[in-house]
């Protein structure tokens, strides 16, 4: 209470300073007068009386000083004074200020932008109850090199019922539905979830309720939970949606609730375009429970019991897997040995982007370091000019701490200005990244500069100011009044500062080299990636997807007839050269089947990618058929089962000989004869090697994937606009046969390719940008240092020349020094790169992280630029006129 | 040895000023200084100027208030007077001072025996 009152009156004192000063002055004058009067009354003469009075009162200036300290907040006041002074400095040197602020803005802005990405993707906890205790469980097939399959339905129940470590568990799977009943059929992403998932995650619907245990049973009436987005966009945020019935794959589902907008499970790490539109209860059919290893893909999430660790959970699930493999040996023969692994949910959802994010954050920190070194260098040069000023201040009584503080206040002012400019730059960068960035970087679209980013930027400003202000402040505050005031002491006095500047310059060059090499490696990677033969011709091919769901097309023959008719009608479109259909397309779909070569042991199963295709698929895709023949009209349902395999499969399982005529088993479907070998095609991504692949005829084989059908049309005219113009005609042709067929995923093969390299392109562009900025900053820094040296030494150079030194030799001397700094920087930079190279390695493709070309070209480039930057001041050194330079001082 | 013309103890100046104002009513700075010297019979060496920061401090705490007025010999002067909370403060500080003094006295006495 009292302290507050004192503070208030002191704060008030800050603003009434002049009035209070005058009042005190009057008061003291009155006191002195009264004392003098008294002394005169005692019989002293006026002069003596005044003298004695003054002595009794004490030093008036000291009193005023203590009084002032008492009357307001001295610290704030002197800080305000420093700040005023700093602002004056900043305004009086607009060129210096502009360069320093811009440099800092680049560094801070890039960091703020990347931080908002790091924050959104890595730092923010998932929006669930105790997210740290949530584990995912997935199996691998180590002997077949299969990664993260999920678990099978039967295994899910084993894990659920016999584990000792989870307090709650739930199963989930991704799914897709046709939402019909509206104007046009809609394809929606969905997930099926156990009823237990909601209490496990601690999530409540914003409308209605979640699933009950009864609804989890197979055969229960269909219920569905809508996503907030679907509810708003498709149902106009209808408050009475609960209880209404919607049609999914032609079956009725009752809406029982709406989930909050942030609920994305199980697609937490996925971009918005792939998050679920709705959720249905997870129920396993008897079919899926029958065979333990025929189909995996069930997600398993569990909440750790209190007191248990991830390690204990891992041990527990391994025990369970060992048990059921022992109990059902017939399901786990030979290569079918599963190995379960637990992952922390929070880590797992971002595992793929983590290396990229670390790389970006590391790179922008490097840019900031270079910016700091640059500004420090600038300040050092200024410190040289300000030595006299500091000497004067110190001579009239400023102590070291006060001088230090003055320097730091100036640094803080600069970095705050840089930070404000940086925030604007960051906003620009983010807008750019969202516009041009890859769609598959999770949460990129949700990014915004929020309070946390502002806080981070502020802290960064403070740290930055400390970092770049430290050296110059130390130099300036240590000035001795005597030496500082002597004009000619400058050359000797600044030698230490010169060393500091050289060190800064070498640091900048070293860090810039790391970024240059990193950028170079990513560019190399990207080039290699684009040179990779894709296995198909991406120009001039368009795709339209559809789904022939089993309710409306329960008869495969009817479906086949419609599909064939559609293919016929599409081929009749003008400008079309080839038409085909396939269940799964490269770079967008994945489907694997188990197969066993005829000659292999009965339990020697392997996995291959699979797609069901129509005759003419290879022609439409532009994939060369290397041996044998394509499917034909004759490979019907009653004809012998045939297949086409790719080169990788032929190489891997038939040791490279042409396997046409060889046979293999596909599960319990019997034996298939290989009739052709097609060129390899990249399936999951361009940077993943082509896997073994088996093609089957969609008009011969009936499988779980038979309802999927993508139509591929190759255009005679391969322009992008021609591709876009064809879609309405394609839709119209297909709907003329069945107007309830959902059509979606209209795209071109080119778009698929560029989407699959989007993230790499984005990383590469960012890194090249960072490397360019750092190169620029380092060169500016070096240019400044060399110019300064030349200016400082102009007298010495003049004397040398006056004594007959060759002008060109003087120039060479300067260049040699720059080259020495550059080489030192490159040497250290190479060392730094070796230390940090693991960060890059994870983002490279078919380029070694110590790629000799990049490792030698980049230092050469940097050295060349450094010498170029030193050329201008070196030339100036040779032009020094001895007469002018010597007269200057 | 130096005669006992002691420095004013840190913190005691506040108490002395409050007590003076309590005894004398509103006074200007000069008057307070004169009064202190008079009462202490010049035993206390008071640098008169140090009174002003102390007065400011007391005023900031709300224990005294000030008002410009005219002195006996017609000079403009700032008059300080005790406030209600100042009076309370004086009582409590005087009490604690006396307690302290008693303790010190007893301690010194015990030592002497």
Question: Explain this structure to me?
Answer:
The complex is a heterodimer of chains A (889) and B (113). Chain A has 889 residues and is an alpha+beta fold. Chain A has four domains: 2-72, no CATH class; 131-348, no CATH class; 355-487 and 495-530 and 758-888, no CATH class; 549-740, no CATH class. Chain A contains 29 helices and 22 strands. A six-stranded mixed beta barrel of chain A has the order 3-4-9-6-8-7. In chain A, a hairpin with a 5-residue loop joins strand 3 and strand 4 (186-193). In chain A, helix 5 (74-92) crosses helix 15. Chain A is elongated. Chain B is an alpha+beta fold and 113 residues long. Chain B has one domain (12-112): Arc Repressor Mutant, subunit A. In chain B, 56% of the residues lie in helices and 14% in strands. Chain B is built from four helices and three strands, in the order αβααββα. Chain B has helices at 12-24, 29-39, 51-60, 84-112, and strands at residues 27-28, 64-70, 76-82. In chain B, strands 1-3-2 form a three-stranded antiparallel β-sheet. In chain B, a hairpin with a 5-residue loop joins strand 2 and strand 3. The longest helix of chain B is centred in the C-terminal third of the chain and has 29 residues, at 84-112. Chain B is globular, with a radius of gyration of 16 Å. The two termini of chain B are 25 Å apart. Residues 1-5 of chain B have low confidence and may be disordered. Chain A binds chain B through residues 2, 5-6, 9-10, 23-24, 26-28, 30-31, 33-35, 37-38, 56-60, 62-63, 66-67, 69-71, and chain B through 28-30, 33-34, 47-50, 52-53, 56-57, 59-62, 71, 73, 75-78.
């Amino acid at each position: 209470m009292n302290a507050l009152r004192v503070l208030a009156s002191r704060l008030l004192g800050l603003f009434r300073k002049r009035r209070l000063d005058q009042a005190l002055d009057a008061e003291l004058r009155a006191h002195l007068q009264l004392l003098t009067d008294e002394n005169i009354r005692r019989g002293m003469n006026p002069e003596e009386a005044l003298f004695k009075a003054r002595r009794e009162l004490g030093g008036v200036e000291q009193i005023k000083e203590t009084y002032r300290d008492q009357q307001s907040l001295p610290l704030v006041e002197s800080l305000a004074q420093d700040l005023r002074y700093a602002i004056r400095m900043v305004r009086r040197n607009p060129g210096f200020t502009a360069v320093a602020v811009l440099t800092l803005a680049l560094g801070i802005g890039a960091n703020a932008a990347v931080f908002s990405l790091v924050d959104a993707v890595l730092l923010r906890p998932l929006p669930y109850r105790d997210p740290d205790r949530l584990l995912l469980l997935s199996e691998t097939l180590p002997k077949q090199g299969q990664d993260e399959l999920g678990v099978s339905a039967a295994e899910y129940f084993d894990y659920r019922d016999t584990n000792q470590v989870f307090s709650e568990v739930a199963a989930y799977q991704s799914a897709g539905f046709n939402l019909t009943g509206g104007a046009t059929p809609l394809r929606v992403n969905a997930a099926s979830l156990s009823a237990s998932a909601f209490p496990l995650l601690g999530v409540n619907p914003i409308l209605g309720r979640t699933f009950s245990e009864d609804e989890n049973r197979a055969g229960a009436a269909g219920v569905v939970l809508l996503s907030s987005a679907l509810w708003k966009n498709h149902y106009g945020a209808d408050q009475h949606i609960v209880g209404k019935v919607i049609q999914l794959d032609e079956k009725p589902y009752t809406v029982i609730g709406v989930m909050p907008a942030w609920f994305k499970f199980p697609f937490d790490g996925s971009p918005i375009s792939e998050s679920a539109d709705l959720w249905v209860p997870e129920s396993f059919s008897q079919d899926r429970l029958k065979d333990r290893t025929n189909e995996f893909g069930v997600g398993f999430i569990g909440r750790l019991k209190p007191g248990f660790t991830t390690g204990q959970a891992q041990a527990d699930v391994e025990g369970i897997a060992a048990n059921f493999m022992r109990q059902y040996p017939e399901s786990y023969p030979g290569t079918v040995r599963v190995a379960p692994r637990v992952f922390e949910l929070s880590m797992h959802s971002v595992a793929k982007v983590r290396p990229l994010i670390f790389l970006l954050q590391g790179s922008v920190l490097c840019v900031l370091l270079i910016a700091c070194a640059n500004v420090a260098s600038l300040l050092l040069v200024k410190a040289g000019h300000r030595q006299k000023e500091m000497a004067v201040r110190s001579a009239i009584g400023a102590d070291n701490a006060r001088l230090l503080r003055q320097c730091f206040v100036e640094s803080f002012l600069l970095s705050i200005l840089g930070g404000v400019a940086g925030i604007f730059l960051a906003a620009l960068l983010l807008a750019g990244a969202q516009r041009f960035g890859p769609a598959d970087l999770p949460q990129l679209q949700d990014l915004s500069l929020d309070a946390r980013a502002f806080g981070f930027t502020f802290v960064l400003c403070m740290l930055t100011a400390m970092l770049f202000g430290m050296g110059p402040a130390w130099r300036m505050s240590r000035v001795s009044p005597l030496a500082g005031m002597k004009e000619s002491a400058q050359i000797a006095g600044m030698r230490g500062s010169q060393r500091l500047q050289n060190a800064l310059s070498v640091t900048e060059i070293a860090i810039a080299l790391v970024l240059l090499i990193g950028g170079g490696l990513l560019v190399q990677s990207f080039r290699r990636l684009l040179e990779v033969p894709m296995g198909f011709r991406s120009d001039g091919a368009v795709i339209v997807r559809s789904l022939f769901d089993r309710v409306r097309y329960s008869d495969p023959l009817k479906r086949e007839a419609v599909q064939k008719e559609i293919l016929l009608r599409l081929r009749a479109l003008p400008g079309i050269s080839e038409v085909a259909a396939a269940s799964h397309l490269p770079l967008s779909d994945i489907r694997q089947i188990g197969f066993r070569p005829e000659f292999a042991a009965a339990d020697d199963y392997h996995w291959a990618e699979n797609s069901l295709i129509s005759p003419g698929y290879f022609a439409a895709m532009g994939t060369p058929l290397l041996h044998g023949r394509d499917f034909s009209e004759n490979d019907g349902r009653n004809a012998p089962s045939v297949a086409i395999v790719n080169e990788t499969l032929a190489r891997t399982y038939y040791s490279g000989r042409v396997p046409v005529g060889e046979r293999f088993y596909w599960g319990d479907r019997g034996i298939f004869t290989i009739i052709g070998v097609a060129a390899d095609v990249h399936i999951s991504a361009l940077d993943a090697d082509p896997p073994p692949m088996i093609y089957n005829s969609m008009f011969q084989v009936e499988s779980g994937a038979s309802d999927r059908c993508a139509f591929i049309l190759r255009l005679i005219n391969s322009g992008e606009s021609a591709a876009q113009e064809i879609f309405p005609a394609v839709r119209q042709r297909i709907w003329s046969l069945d107007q309830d067929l959902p059509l979606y995923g209209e795209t071109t093969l080119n778009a698929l390719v560029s989407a699959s390299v989007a993230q790499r392109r984005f990383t590469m562009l960012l890194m090249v940008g960072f490397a360019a900025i750092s190169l620029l900053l380092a060169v500016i820094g070096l240019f400044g240092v060399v110019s300064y040296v030349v200016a400082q030494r102009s007298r010495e150079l003049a004397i040398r020349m006056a004594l007959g030194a060759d002008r060109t030799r003087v120039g060479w001397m300067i260049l040699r020094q720059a080259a020495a700094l550059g080489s030192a920087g490159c040497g250290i930079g190479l060392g730094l790169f070796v230390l940090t190279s693991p960060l890059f390695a994870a983002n490279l493709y078919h380029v070694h992280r110590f790629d000799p070309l990049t490792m030698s070209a980049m230092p050469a480039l940097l050295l060349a630029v450094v010498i170029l930057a030193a050329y201008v001041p070196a030339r100036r050194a040779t032009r020094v006129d001895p007469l002018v330079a010597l007269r200057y001082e | 040895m130096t005669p006992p013309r002691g420095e004013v103890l840190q913190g005691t100046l506040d108490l002395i000023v409050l007590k003076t104002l309590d005894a004398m009513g509103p006074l200007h700075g000069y008057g307070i200084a004169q009064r202190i010297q008079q009462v202490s019979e010049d035993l206390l060496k008071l640098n008169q100027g140090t009174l002003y920061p102390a007065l400011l401090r007391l005023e900031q705490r709300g224990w005294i208030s000030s008002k410009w007025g005219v002195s006996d010999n017609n000079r403009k002067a700032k008059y300080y007077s005790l406030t209600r909370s100042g009076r309370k403060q004086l009582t409590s500080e005087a009490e604690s001072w006396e307690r302290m003094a008693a303790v010190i006295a007893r301690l010194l006495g015990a030592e002497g025996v």
